[in-house]
Amino acid sequence: MEEKDEKREEMFAYFMGNLQSDNPSLRWGAAHSLGRMNDSRAIEPLIALLDDADWRVRFKAVWALGHLGDVRILPFLRRLSRDESETVRDSVMQAKDDILQRESMKKQD
C-alpha cells in the first residue's frame, strides 16, 4: 500500500472512532470529515448518527450522507424530515435534492 493510501486509511479509522465519542463536537467533526473523504464505508456508521441526541451531529450526518450521494439512504432521511431542528430538516431537503440530482445525472450518462 502506498504511503498516501496508508495515511488515508489511518485518517478514516480515526474519524470512524470519533463517531463513538462522548463529545458531540468530535462526532460532528468526524461526520464532516467522513463526508469529505467520500468513502462509502462510512454510510452505515453515519446512518447510526441520524438518531444522535445532538441536533448538530444529526445535521452533519445528513450533510455527509447527502455528500456521499447513495440513494439507499433516502428512507433514512425521510424519517428526519420531521426532526425538531429546522436546520436538520433543511439539510434533509438539500441532501435529498443532491442525491436525486446525482442519480439523474448518472442515468443520462
Describe the protein.
The protein has 109 residues and is mostly helical. It has a single domain, classed as Leucine-rich Repeat Variant, CATH 1.25.10. 73% of the residues lie in helices and 0% in strands. The protein has helices at residues 3-18, 24-37, 43-48, 55-68, 74-80, 86-108. Helix 1 (3-18) packs antiparallel against helix 2 (24-37), helix 4 packs parallel to helix 6 and helix 5 (74-80) packs antiparallel against helix 6.
Order of helices and strands: HHHHHH
Overall morphology: flat
Assigned CATH class:
Mainly Alpha
Oligomeric state: single chain
Residues in β-strands, percent? under 5%
- The CATH topology turns out to be Leucine-rich Repeat Variant
Task: Name a few traits of the molecule.
6 helices, flat, 109 residues, mainly alpha, Leucine-rich Repeat Variant
Give a short summary of the structure:
This protein is an all-alpha fold.
Describe how the helices and strands are arranged.
Elements: H1 3-18, H2 24-37, H3 43-48, H4 55-68, H5 74-80, H6 86-108
Helix pairs in contact: 1-2, 2-4, 4-6, 5-6
